[in-house]
Amino acid sequence: MTTARTATVAAVGGAGVAAFAVIRGLRRAAHGPADDHDERWLAVTVNRAPEEVGSAGSLPGPLARLGDEIELRIVPAAGDKGTELRARPAGTEVSRGDLRSALRKAKSLIETGIVLEADPPSAHPGPLGKVLRKVTRNAQKGGRL
Q1: I need a labelling partner for 132 at 20 to 30 A (CA). Which of 14, 78, 81, 125 fits?
Q2: How many CB atoms lie within 10 A of CB 26?
Q3: CB neighbours (10 Å) of residue 59?
Q4: C-alpha distances in angstroms, 51 versus 43, 54, 74, 109?
Q5: What is the pTM of this model?
Q6: Using a CB cutoff of 8 Å and minimum separation of 24, what contacts does 119-122 make?
Q7: Residue 72 bridge partners (DSSP)
Q8: Which fold has domain 42-119?
C-alpha cells in the first residue's frame, strides 16, 4: 500500500512539473522574448498626480542615474489613478533587470520618501537558506512591477 501511494504521489508530482513547464512555455511564447534588449516599455503607476512626480529632469536618483541610457515617458495613469512612469533602455548599456529595479525604487521614493526594502534574507546555513538568499537578491530585477 505504501509503495502504491508513493508511486501515485510521484506520478502526480511529475505531472505537476510537466504542466508547469508547458504553461511557462506558453506564457513566454505569448509575451514574446524577454531578453535585456527587448524594445517593450516597462511601467509603474505612482500614486501621485503628474505635477507631483515632476519631469524627466527632476526624477529620483535611481532613474536620474540612468540618464540618457533610457527613454522615459511620464503620463497620467488611466482613470485618474496617479501617474504612469514608462521606461525602456535606449541602447544596450542598461539591462531590463536594472531598469525594473530603478523603476521600483523611484516609485517607492516618490510615494513614501524612502526606498522600501524586503526583510533581510534568511541566515539559515542549509540549502533552503541559500535558495531564499538567491531569490531575495534577484527579486528586484524580475517579476511584476
Answers
A1: 14
A2: 10
A3: 22
A4: 18, 6, 10, 15
A5: 0.61
A6: none
A7: 87
A8: TATA-Binding Protein (3.30.310)
